[in-house]
Design brief:
1% strand; elongated; mainly alpha; disordered N terminus; Leucine-rich Repeat Variant; disordered C terminus
Length: 472
């Protein structure tokens, strides 16, 4: 008999007990040709005839008995038990074959197809071996084809059967996408699918987007606006759908090629609006951390009206250290890659005082990142000076000798005070009060002794309007 060519099944394991590579090869060579010929029967009624003795069943039973005997397990302590075990395994395999044949039946109303999809969903819910076996038997293409029928009773079972087939199985995830499931689900979205179908579609995209090779395919397919809308406007009766949509968007944000599509779909605005809802804030900040690594993502954050104020507010969430770490990471990436004008906007948003507080009270990772942002801002400040014509130019960030620098600062302070207007003096006074208030708040939140409170020496450092960089 000619050898049947079915592809590479090296990773297939029928049951955990029978895992030897040689046994798998013998088993598949003996059975898969029979499976193919059985599925090519032109008459659908033949699938429901009472089973007739087939030589391949006897061959399968012999192979199973031989494997049980070689394994030396307790179940094989006698020919009778080995025969019973082989019989049980044979019947289970043939049951899976029968269920897959149901998917190809062109019966009136599609009852058998629906029953087949429902049974596959049940069998694959908690059984990894069944997922591998059913995929090997060819269950995925007919399930994907069922998505093209205008029948909810076929679409929903097929969607959940595909979802269960992909659980923990990267080969099946790739096979589902290759079979055209992404575009089939997009067609369902465009046709105005009901909430029950939309939830199943979101769950499938969450599963499929977990595979790296699928990320760019899904991201460029046009499904991102649907996922963003599902995140922004979830079904009130199902909070899980919103979580699934956000997790799928996070998976897609890992691929740099998806950043333009995500930004164009308004994900940055949706994330910033969701910050504060603790059910989704942590993962939203994680997705934003991926987006700001791209130029499109950074521009979207800077252009957003309240983005910096929201991120600075998160820096004060002492009861959510994970959110603090992600927010300061976002600011660190932006400070490192942004231009001088964007860094100036960050300073004007009050980032410095929040970072100083975080270096005292934050987690070790947050402290490290906050110190890094402060260092970037300080170096950036040292590189920008203004010449007499009002044009900024770059100079090395070096300090003059201490005595000379102090003398120059005193002269500048005296000259500034002499020509200072009442309005400027009032502004300086407000700046001093703000600095002192921030220091008191930091000390209070850190539960430090009162001697750490602003002293006269600290006040003397803030007399001048000249900004001084504090060591850290």
């Amino acid at each position: 008999m000619a050898k049947c060519q079915r592809g590479d099944y090296a990773s297939f394991r029928l049951w955990p007990l029978f895992s030897a590579a040689s046994f798998r090869r013998k088993l598949l060579e003996a059975l898969t040709c029979g499976v193919s010929s059985q599925r090519r029967k032109s008459s659908a009624a033949a699938a429901f005839e009472s089973p007739k003795p087939r030589p391949r069943s006897d061959r399968l039973r012999e192979l199973l008995r031989a494997e049980v005997s070689e394994s030396g397990s307790d179940e094989a302590e006698g020919d009778g038990e080995g025969e019973a075990e082989a019989q049980r395994k044979t019947e289970a395999f043939e049951e899976l074959q029968r269920v897959v044949r149901w998917l190809d039946l062109d019966d009136n109303g599609g009852d058998r197809r629906r029953d087949g999809a429902t049974e596959i969903r049940r069998l694959t819910k908690d059984d990894a071996e069944a997922r591998e076996t059913l995929a090997m038997l060819g269950a995925i293409p007919p399930l994907v084809g069922m998505l093209g029928y205008d029948d909810l009773e076929l679409q929903i079972p097929a969607l959940y059967a595909l979802l269960n087939l992909g659980i923990g199985n990267d080969i099946n995830k790739a096979a589902i996408v290759k079979a055209g499931a992404v575009h089939k689900m997009l067609d369902l979205i465009e046709s105005g699918s009901p909430p029950s179908v939309s939830e199943a579609i979101v769950a499938n995209f969450l599963s499929l987007s977990a595979l790296d090779s699928n990320k760019s395919i899904i991201g460029s397919s046009g499904v991102i606006p649907f996922l963003v809308n599902s995140f922004q406007n979830p079904n009130p009766s199902s909070r899980q759908s919103r979580q699934d949509a956000l997790r799928a968007l996070f998976n897609l944000s890992i691929a740099a090629s998806n950043a333009p599509h995500l930004v164009e779909s308004g994900l940055v605005t949706a994330i910033l609006a969701a910050i504060g809802d603790m059910d989704v804030t942590d993962r939203s900040l994680a997705a934003l951390s991926n987006l700001v690594a791209s130029p499109e993502g950074r521009r979207a954050v800077i252009r957003s009206k309240d983005a910096l104020a929201i991120l600075v507010d998160v820096l004060h969430w002492s009861d959510a250290p994970g959110c603090q770490e992600k927010a300061v990471y976002i600011l660190m990436v932006m400070a490192h890659k942004a231009g001088y004008g964007e860094r100036t906007a960050m300073v004007e948003a009050g980032i410095v005082s929040a970072l100083l507080e975080l270096t005292l009270l934050g987690s070790p990772l947050a402290q490290k990142r906050a110190s890094r942002v402060l260092e970037i801002l300080r170096v950036d400040k040292g590189k920008q000076v203004e010449d007499g014509s009002g044009v900024c130019c770059s100079v090395p960030a070096v300090s003059a000798p201490l005595s000379i620098a102090e003398g120059k600062e005193e002269e500048e302070e005296e000259r500034d005070e002499m020509g200072m207007s009442d309005e400027k003096k009032a502004v300086n006074q407000l700046v001093q009060q703000s600095l002192q208030s921030n220091m008191r708040r930091i000390v209070k939140r850190a539960n430090l002794p009162q001697e750490f409170a602003p002293s006269e020496h600290f006040r003397s450092l803030t007399v001048s309007s000249t900004s001084k960089s504090l060591p850290f």
